[in-house]
Design a protein that fits this description.
Largest sheet of chain A: 6 strands, mixed
Radius of gyration of chain A: 24 Å
Number of strands of chain B: 6
Helix content of chain A: 25-40%
Oligomer: heterodimer
Number of strands of chain A: 13
Number of helices of chain B: 18
Distance between the termini of chain B: 20 Å
Strand content of chain A: 25-35%
Strand content of chain B: under 5%
Distance between the termini of chain A: 22 Å
Structural class of chain B: mainly alpha
């Protein structure tokens, strides 16, 4: 049973079609990337999943069925625009937000203490939220998202304002949640985080799904017909099936003909007696894929 | 329900334990006490207990031992009889008396009394001498007549249509609805302002988006509105407590106040009207808070609902003289004016039961409507950052957000 099943949802605000036929599934135990440029329709899609908006058409299933008030307690949401009560102590703010997730006071206090310790916020618990740094507020917001141990976690830019140490803590936390079988939907523009954390992704642009699937498959799908070779030997000036050879010291990039199989090139090079230190099919980064897709070069649903 | 109660508890404690609330709570009684204290101090400064003399040339003082009514805190001055003016003047010169009143021999015809004093005598001494003179003039009358004369007539005002009435002995029937109404309006403005401000803050600091993923907007709004109402009622109860305490003190100190009566049924009616009126105003305030983006703009918009609450005070005259006129009936049915008009009408006339019932039904329906409207405005406005939501959107598009 998928944690989220989104089927052909659309949503318009006046004449603006914010989401136009978006579909995807998020499984339990995976970190799923929900990507797209600013204004693509990500936040509107999330708000529809969370039942803040109703879709104009299409259907959404969350944790095995339609969204309900009971299910709200099983969802943790960290929106892009952070929201904490500024004029009250951090501890009180966390207790109130956790209590609205149906938690009892003794459980709230126990978990809150654990998280405060983990995020090094114990000494700040009595401080007013507005007195905390941006990074501290971000950590507090994460605590309020996770404190009730939700089955579905939706987080928008979880690493913003965090230093490398806290970024690592959050990464570990997310992986830990995934290993516990929780479904995590992560929106971010930090593509390296997506590459390292997410199993699958959907890329939305102008309200439409433009890319959806396993990250490894997507990268392979977008792989340029290029091989990267590292060799200390003298490299031949011509290789069969290769239309261009670019050599930079010991790294050689081979641009293949349209019909050439990289495996055949490897076989030919090995047979020619060249000692290869490294051989790899050049894979594009998610950043590159994002830019290529969003700039309209390609659409791969 | 559990979450609604949590919202209620949080919102209530958030406002009640704030400095500004405590300041507002204690501020009004403190000001009243301060005014009373200033009054008392000014009387105390003017008070002099030095005796005053009199020379009775008219022979009207028949009983020198008459006991003057004692004041709240100050004893009457001693009044010393002098047989002739020259002895009295000598006493004035020596400073043993403040001054001397010379009652003219034709006093009964002319009413002339001359005061001889270095400057003037204190106001308490003047008052005591007048009481002394009056009581002596009435000495030959029976005690009943004396009491009646001193108490004055008990006037009952009847309306043109002959229905009941305003009585000088039931002045509290008029004063209490006005006082409670004024307190209610002050309270609505203060606590409604809290609610409005809280919603604006939640929009500004983006807390709303988090909250609505935990609780339904309707539950949230009901929880907030009820909490706001209880904050207001806490304030009202505290002020009424101070008022009752003040009344109790005044009853001890003033026989006139002690003689006053008040109908508890009237107070019950006031409360029955205030309860839905408060929810209605709070709901409307919440709607405004959810729709607006800036505090000042929201406060201006809110006056559309709070200003009509004061309208009955401008029409107290017609309300007293003709409590069954179409204007007054209209005001006692219109939801924004009825909380104040209806109790006042009941003080001056017998309001037909159907009018009372309709007034209450309209108010309760409006309270429910205001809550629904607030929920809709909240759904539309909660995520509209930096853009003001129009009323038309709330009425027309509100449902599409649900």
């Amino acid at each position: 049973m998928p944690a989220i099943h989104v089927n052909e949802i659309t949503k318009s605000f006046g004449s603006i079609k914010a989401v136009n036929g978006v579909s995807f599934e998020v499984q339990q135990g995976e970190i799923f990337g929900l990507l797209g440029p600013n204004g693509a329709g990500k936040t509107t899609s999330i708000r529809m999943i969370l039942d803040i908006f109703k879709p104009d058409s299409g259907s959404i299933s969350v944790l095995g069925g339609a969204m309900s008030e009971d299910k709200k307690d099983k969802i943790g949401y960290l929106p892009e625009e952070r929201g904490l009560y500024q004029d009250i102590p951090l501890e009180r703010c966390l207790i109130y937000l956790a209590s609205l997730k149906g938690m009892e006071m003794n459980v709230i206090k126990k978990r809150m203490n654990e998280y405060l310790e983990r995020f090094d916020l114990v000494l700040s618990r009595k401080k007013k939220v507005k007195e905390l740094s941006k990074g501290m507020q971000q950590k507090a917001q994460l605590i309020s998202t996770l404190i009730h141990e939700p089955d579905l976690i939706i987080i928008d830019e979880p690493f913003s304002a965090l230093d490398p140490v806290n970024t690592q803590i959050v990464r570990e936390l997310l992986m830990e949640q995934r290993d516990k079988g929780k479904a995590i939907v992560m929106c971010t523009h930090q593509m390296h985080q997506v590459e390292e954390l997410c199993d699958r992704l959907v890329l939305i642009d102008k309200g439409k799904t433009v890319l959806y699937g396993n990250i490894h498959d997507i990268r392979r799908q977008f792989a340029k017909r290029e091989i990267s070779v590292w060799s200390l030997d003298e490299f031949p000036s011509h290789v069969f099936g290769v239309k261009e050879i670019i050599q930079e010291n010991h790294e050689i990039r081979l641009r293949l003909d349209a019909t050439t199989n990289p495996q055949d090139v490897l076989k030919d090079l090995v047979n020619s007696g060249i000692k290869l230190e490294r051989f790899e099919i050049a894979m594009p980064t998610l950043d590159e894929i994002f830019i290529r897709v969003v700039q309209g070069e390609e659409m791969h649903v | 329900m559990k979450k609604l109660l949590r919202v209620f508890k949080y919102e209530y404690s958030r406002h009640v334990f704030r400095k500004r609330f405590i300041f507002a709570l204690l501020g009004m009684p403190f000001i009243l006490i301060l005014i009373a204290a200033f009054g008392f101090i000014s009387i105390a400064i003017q008070y002099k207990d030095t005796p005053v003399g009199y020379v009775d040339n008219a022979g009207v003082i028949v009983d020198e031992t008459i006991i003057l009514p004692s004041g709240w805190f100050f004893k009457p001055v001693e009044l010393i009889r002098f047989n002739d003016e020259s002895t009295a003047r000598l006493a004035v010169d020596q400073g043993t008396i403040q001054g001397v009143y010379i009652i003219d021999e034709n006093y009964i015809d002319t009413g002339n009394v001359h005061l001889i004093a270095p400057k003037t005598v204190s106001s308490n001494a003047q008052s005591d001498f007048q009481d002394f003179l009056q009581l002596n003039l009435l000495a030959t009358q029976s005690q009943d007549r004396v009491d009646r004369l001193l108490d004055g007539p008990k006037i009952e005002i009847f309306s043109i249509d002959g229905s009941r009435h305003a009585s000088s002995q039931r002045i509290l029937d008029i004063v209490i609805p006005i006082a409670v109404g004024v307190l209610f309006m002050v309270m609505v403005n203060i606590t409604g302002g809290y609610l409005l401000q809280a919603l604006l803050e939640e929009k500004e600091n983006r807390t709303m988006e988090i909250i609505v993923t935990s609780i339904s907007p309707n539950q949230l709004m009901i929880g907030k509105t009820l909490a706001d109402m209880c904050v207001g009622l806490t304030q009202l109860a505290a002020w009424l407590g101070f008022g009752i305490l003040g009344l109790a003190v005044a009853k001890v100190l003033s026989p006139w106040v002690a003689g006053q009566q008040y109908s508890l049924g009237n107070l019950g009616l006031v409360m029955a009207l205030i309860f839905p009126a408060f929810i209605m105003i709070a709901g409307l305030m919440a709607a405004v808070g959810a729709m607006m983006t800036e505090g000042q703009e929201a406060q201006q918009m809110a006056t559309i609902f709070t200003l009509p609450l004061f309208v009955p005070l401008w029409f107290v005259g017609p309300l007293m003289t003709n409590p069954n006129s179409p204007l007054v009936i209209g005001m006692s049915l219109f939801p924004l004016t009825s909380p104040m008009t209806m109790p006042l009408r009941t003080a001056f006339t017998t309001v037909p039961t159907w009018q009372l019932a309709i007034s209450l039904v309209i108010l309760y329906l409006c309270a429910a409507g205001a809550l629904i409207l607030a929920g809709r405005a909240f759904r539309i406005g909660m995520l509209q950052y930096g853009r003001r939501v129009k009323w038309r959107e709330v009425f027309q598009r509100g449902k599409s957000y649900e």
